[in-house]
Amino acid sequence: MSSFGQKLAECRKEKGLSQSELAKRITTHYSIIGKYERNEVKPTIDVVKKLADNLETTVGYLLGETQDANLLKDPDMMRRFNEVNKLPENDKNCVFSMMDAYLAKHKMQELLK
User: Fold this and answer.
1) How far apart are CA 72 and CA 65, in angstroms?
2) Spatial distance between the Cα atoms of 76 and 61, rounded to a whole number of angstroms
3) How far is CA 68 from the centre of its chain?
4) What percent of the chain stands above pLDDT 90?
5) Cα–Cα distance between 51 and 55 in angstroms, integer?
6) Of 49, 50, 65, 90, which has the maximum CB count within 10 A?
7) Which DSSP string corresponds to the chain?
8) Using only C-alpha atoms, what is the Rg of the chain?
């Protein structure tokens, strides 16, 4: 699993930004970006949010909660998850069961190809 620093460097390079350019965007010094990327210093959650916003990824990706840099960047998906989150627990479980069944069906179809 990649560290925070590795993911930060990967995202920065994918955007074609130097450490200096990213530092300017979040109003810090380029040496701090280097320290983050080498895992010498841990940023505050506010800084992680700024980094994620500027790199067009998610805090969850940078922190290792997901392996997909674009997960939940889709506004329609986020709207749906927010709506599901408002449901009573029994209804949430029903939605999750339906999702699990569909995903299992999809995986089975992929295996049979």
Assistant:
1) 12
2) 19
3) 6
4) 74
5) 6
6) 50
7) ---HHHHHHHHHHHTT--HHHHHHHTTS-HHHHHHHHTTSSPPPHHHHHHHHHHHTS-HHHHTTS-S-TTTT--HHHHHHHHHHHTS-HHHHHHHHHHHHHHHHHHHHHHHH-
8) 18
